[in-house]
Known about the structure:
alpha+beta, 36 strands, 6-stranded antiparallel sheet, 11 helices, Collagenase (Catalytic Domain), 753 residues, Immunoglobulin-like, 7-stranded mixed sheet, Jelly Rolls
Amino acid sequence: xxxxxxLISGYTPHNKxxxxxxxxxxxxxxxxxxxxxxxxLAGITSVSAQNWCGAVENRQELYSDRPAEAAIxxxxxxxxxxxxxxxxxxxxxxxxxxxxxxxxxVIHQGGSENISIEQINDQMEILNExxxxxxxxxxxxxxxxxxxxxDTNIEFRLAKLDPDGNCTEGVTRTxxxxxxxxRDNVKALIQWDPQHYLNVWVVKTIENFSSxxxxxxxxxxxxxxxxxxxxxxxxxxxxxxxxxxETASGTVGRTLTHEAGHWLNLRHIWGDxxxxxxxVNDTPTAEExxxxxxxxxxxxxxxxxxxxxxxxxxxxxxxxxxxxxYMDYSDDHCMNMFSLGQGARMRSAITTYRNNLVTxxxxxxxxxxxxxxxxxxxxxxxxxxxxxxxxxxxxxxxNNESYNTPIDSISSFEWTFEGGTPATSTEQNPSVDYEESxxxxxxxxxTNSVGSSTMTKEAYINISADDADMSAPYFQNFExxxxxxxxxxxxxxxxxxxxxxxSWMRTTQASSPNLSPIDNGANNASYRIRSSEFEELGxxxxxxxPSIDLSSTSTPIRAYFDLAHARKNGNSDxxxxxxxxxxxxxxxxxxxxxxxxxxxxxxxxxxxFDFVPTDGQWEQFSVNLNAFAGESNVILKFEFTxxxxxxxYIDNFVVCNSDELSISxxxxxxxxxxxxxxxxxxxxxxxxxxxxxxQIVLSNVYGAVLAQKDLKMKSANNSIQLKDLYANLKAxxxxxxLSNDGTSITKKVVITE
Length: 753
């Protein structure tokens, strides 16, 4: 099932809860949609089955805090719609063939998301067949709609010249962890001028929008936003829905077709409202998104009992809804047409909003003209390693990921490995051992008949000594002015990711009153970071502890730290993760994950100006390390990311045996519900000292049990979504109880409408 998204008269069913009384007043169409939605969701066994387009939600979020600008753009859009409808009469005219230069930006971490040029070419073929009405499944278009289906006269071509006039395959590759849960933040990594290229970013996963649910497969920016948001113009698409081969095997590649329609000003065929308009006369008015509807269902929603015909429509509701249109939400294999009117609307968008793209001058400058002679390109050097951390004596496998030319056209690979054995190599994908601890640089030069390219990654490989730097109990109070680098005691050093000297910083402006279980002495300083100083949205900044020996430390073992943080505004999206490694950083286990609401220690209010906590605005947090008991080399990694955020402070970091907390008395070392109050989207989070069978009970304030789950949980940080216990809670106060072997903890959660 493909589910792109629901937006009905400004209402998104996943961000508003209705009381029973309110439900009784909802319109017939809304009632039916909710019923259908619940039926559909009841048949879905995993969230991965829910797939969404995020174009509308993206537009909403971009203008959520800019209502005046949004109103101006909407007026311009209305004027465009009227002009487009007047000029195209009934929407059946064809007025020229347009070529759109395209560049794919592959954002990756060396995994499957780093898709091949072959997969990109496959996607381009699908895209052009769909837009030219040459797709093999066009024969599935019902006869009543066939005369309205046709060539859009729009063709997409991979650029052959980059913005500097250099030879290109129309593909760039950028290594970044932003490929996971991507949004507009990936666009800040790389973008070619949107006045000259359609930018397509390929990523691993896409973060949900606040008003959506399920899995986002792709999202586009509408063309009118070029006036105010050119730096984010383009399309983002998941790698496993880009094309139909390799990582996208089993799909049909229609996600990009759908999003390209949005990029050229097409609306969903239901007009993103109940029986709304898509401003196209030859697409029958649709009542709602059509999920899972296919050929065997035709005709679908026949007659005016579903929607009245819009003014000027050339197809009435007597024919049913055009669910096979690329701008509906049917499954990929059920989509097979754009209407002629949609083609006219897209051409109108090209000749107004995006007119610079299709000029003869731009087509020549991007190498997409018919008479451009394709030539061989010089390679662009790129590589990854299977690991970037390791212990002394560990081996590393390098993977050449150079691009811009076929790999077999590269005549030489010249590698240099600082601190490695061998020190150099001419292999395409060499293996290297590192015997000594330290940070080491790697360089690759690739050459073909056209030219060469060199990539150097400074301090790319990080090797730790076999022996741990410190032993538990260990503490760091950030009081030394030398922190994080101790010239005379390097085993005390904490490690920062590149450029974090400009983000993480020691401060004497605030410090914790020392909430930790071990007295660390003076409390005059702390360590802080804020996401509002990040140059790019979603930047990730890491802070690594020294290696710690836990081989002689008995359970229970925890890492404690004092923390202070405040939300800056409603757009704040800060997150702190803590990962733990027992193999010198080759692999990491996530043990702590909290967002803005869970991190806030000031009572939950906004603090627009730089947040400086008082003594009462610090809280103690902890990480369960029982799984690492007996290990002799343990590293913790603080990973902070966010946007529009505020200062976050840490202080009094301690790793010790926490025997003052008895497992038999209380197995739950941490229990939080956030956000609280919520609209039903709260997260129940708890930590256990050891593997345990627990029971979670949700009840109302009168003691009536609404839901109960028995779960076998691990000794770790665990979480469950409140909506997975009970979906669509009414507004009110509820109790969540965790129980294990006769011991229980109860917390209150408030649900608002």
